[in-house]
Amino acid sequence: MFFSLLSACGGGSDHDDPPPANDPPPTTTQPPPPPVPVPPPVSLAAGYTDLVAGTINSPPGWPAWSGTGQPVAGVGCLINEDYHIHALVSIYKDGVRQGLPDNIGRSGCAYELHTHDVTGTIHIETNVPKTFTLGQLFALWRQPLLASGTAGLAGPIRFYVIDKEVLTPYTGNPGDIELTAHREIVIVSGTPPATLPKYRWPSGI
Q: Pairing with 14, which of 23, 87, 106, 114 sits 20 to 30 Å away (CA)?
């Protein structure tokens, strides 16, 4: 009788029931990173715009410049104008071309790199041929030149070079871009203009 009760109650077993299985923790799937924004395409206009007429009314974007006459980043006071070429720097903020200070490199002395107006025309005047870069110009101007921010404008900054009517995006170090005769360097912050002017240089420069 006693053994019958044990059997009925499950007593006398040497094996315990296995513990309940633990469910695996739920897996979480990380969302993919957002795609890198693709900048709007920029093209060069088919027709020409006279350089001075198209740039002389650019709104001033920076205060006047001042210098000491001391060499800056390899840019010294000019000796003479035996070698005299011109490049162009165009800076756009949300599609609007900004006027550069009209006296960069013309305080303390006349530097080998300088401006005469707001057009962004860079005068390169030396006694012998020399190579200068955009980085040297910005060092003289005392403005930052980075893809994350340039001359007080928010990044990302995009750079383009226009040579012989060919527009090329530039993704290297912008400070390395050379200032060569009739080269235009375009610096864009924010929304770019859909079309960049194709400037006609004045005769004689």
A: 23
